[in-house]
Specification:
The chain has about 550 residues and is an alpha+beta fold. It has ten helices and 25 strands. It is elongated, with a radius of gyration of 31 Å.
Length: about 550
């Protein structure tokens, strides 16, 4: 059927309007997908790749530098010589140096960005077990590379809605094809607790966060249990600490007792209020008598070739924490931070604090750590090294002042605009007083204050101590002065009624042993360090708890 003259005229007008619109700056969308099918990834001969029975060392502060040969190939497996795009590099498990997470291709071959005549290399950290390097054509990070208000690749999408954007400025780049390549296996040693706990960055968060980690290297022994998990220490770890971890089992780990030798621990590495721990854990206990039927139970050695260290006698000696450690006066930034040792290394978004760690390493010892003007001021490395380990504090005074700052009775401390009753000021004043315990923290967490190396001052309840009372017997005497404030928590180990702090308020205790953990409520709020005794015997004084 022939179209009517009126219809043909309308169609011509529509085509003309379309041509005019294109001539006014609009460009017709043209599919510019290259015939990229995959990436071929090889590791040059002579590169150390490790073996299952002879793995490479776990790469932490010192990375493993891996040479790569990468080709872009088409559907026939032939090198795509007209491919000059950018691909994303990653490693699983592990991390790639931030400056090496994009690789440029020239004539279908990935090139070394600093010296095209040399092989391409990447620096790998925190890799373990069977490891692979991935190459993917997935486009740049939209939020960081394309958050510029422009349609960078001409597909009429902008910013976060522009998944194919590769270059924030300049000519349009190739669209993402989702082409992928994977390297041959690399074999790295499985991590120890030290590798889980110690991070050679300007942060104290675990470098293995979000990873499912299995630890079987070292001599792993249970040093304590709580109502929600257990503490484990590697007796073979280095002397500088970072050898203990908490396994969060949600409830008391039945069948486990102090001194048990664990052959394997595993779980998801995570941070919880600044504590590195394993969530959803599993473990293999070396004992063959989990029901405790026989006190002198038979031990199934985790390492049959060596004598086992097991039982209470095998526990490590507690590390003594002094006041200068708590305040950060003795803390120095470890000298193997790779941000310091690797010139040109840039912070990894979401992983590294955006600070100059060289400045952090030069921090003076006469300035408390939490007062230093650097982003990692929140990290007290003198205490962090012993997180979750057995520690001891000496010359301790149990707090004798108790502040009820929950003035409206809602079970929380109001801050900011919602604080109309002065709860925040009350709570901060108590926090600055080394012998003041928040009633709310005591009720909710069984957590109370203790001072280290205190000098006698005003008696509890006296006006000079900040708490108005009738009959001030030592007028003009300032409150007790302490070298540091630390917290004690007994709720999860001794039970709610296991230690009556108000009965023992103001008592001098020669020594308290327990596990060290921390609470970091949030930005701008100072970290609270807590010692968690395991039993009444951990209070060493002339008075029984």
């Amino acid at each position: 059927m022939r179209a009517s003259p009126k219809y043909r005229a309308s169609a011509a007008l529509a085509l003309l309007a379309g041509a005019l619109s294109l001539g006014c700056g609009e460009q017709a969308y043209v599919e510019h997908r290259l015939p990229l099918r995959a990436f071929r990834v090889t590791i040059p001969s002579g590169t150390q790749v490790g073996k299952t029975d002879a793995p490479l060392p776990f790469p932490s502060a010192v990375p493993a530098t891996i040479a790569l040969e990468i080709e872009a190939v088409d559907s026939a497996g032939l090198r795509l010589k007209d491919y000059n795009g950018i691909a994303v590099v990653s490693v699983s498990p592990g991390q790639i140096d931030a400056t090496q997470r994009r690789v440029q291709f020239k004539d279908g071959q990935a090139v070394n960005p600093t010296d095209p005549s040399r092989p391409l290399t990447v620096d790998v950290r925190f890799a373990y077990g069977d490891t692979h390097i991935w190459i993917e054509d997935i486009g740049e990070d939209v939020l960081t590379e394309c958050d510029n208000g422009l349609d960078d690749d001409g597909d009429k999408l902008k910013d976060a809605a522009d998944p194919d954007c590769q270059i924030a400025s300049g000519p349009a780049s190739a669209k993402s094809t989702l082409a992928t390549g994977i390297s041959p296996s690399l074999f790295f040693a499985e991590p120890r607790i030290h590798d889980l706990q110690y991070s050679p960055r300007c942060t104290t968060d675990t470098p293995l966060g979000g990873q499912n980690v299995t630890i079987r290297n070292g001599t792993l022994i249970t040093t304590g249990t709580t109502q929600s998990g257990m503490y484990v220490t590697d007796l073979d770890g280095p002397p500088d600490g970072y050898n203990s971890v908490f396994l969060f089992t949600f409830s008391n780990p039945g069948g486990v007792r102090i001194g048990d030798r664990l052959c394997t621990i595993a779980g998801n590495a995570a941070e919880f209020i600044a504590n590195s721990q394993l969530n959803f854990p599993s473990f293999e206990n070396g004992r063959e008598d989990p029901q405790h039927v026989v006190e002198g139970q038979t031990i199934k050695p985790c390492n049959p070739t060596q004598p086992e260290r097991v039982g209470v006698a095998a526990l490590p000696e507690p590390h003594v924490i002094v006041a200068a450690d708590v305040t950060g006066m003795s803390a120095v930034v470890p000298d193997d931070f790779y941000r310091v040792c690797g010139p040109g290394d840039t912070p990894i978004a979401g992983l590294d604090d955006p600070t100059d760690c060289a400045a952090a390493s030069q921090a003076t010892r006469n300035v408390p750590r939490n007062e230093q003007k650097i982003d990692c001021k929140r990290d007290n490395f003198a205490m962090e090294a012993w997180e979750h380990g057995l520690v001891a504090i000496e010359n301790v005074t149990i707090g004798d002042r108790f502040a009820d700052c929950d003035l409206n009775g809602d079970g929380s401390i109001q801050r900011g605009a919602s604080d109309t009753l002065g709860e925040d000021a009350c709570d901060k004043a108590c926090g600055e007083d080394p012998l003041c315990t928040s009633e709310l923290s005591l009720e909710q967490y069984g957590q109370f204050a203790a001072g280290l190396d205190c000098v006698a001052g005003a008696a509890p309840g006296d006006a000079d101590a900040g708490v108005p009372a009738a009959g001030d017997t030592d007028a003009g005497l300032p409150p007790a002065q302490c070298a540091a404030k630390i917290y004690i928590s007994t709720r999860d180990t001794l039970g709610k009624s296991g230690y009556d702090v108000k009965k023992h308020a103001g008592e001098k205790v020669a020594r308290i042993v327990g596990h060290l953990r921390q609470t970091q409520p949030g930005a701008g709020i100072q970290t609270i360090w807590v010692v968690e005794p395991r039993s009444p015997e951990d209070f060493v004084s002339g008075v029984s708890p």
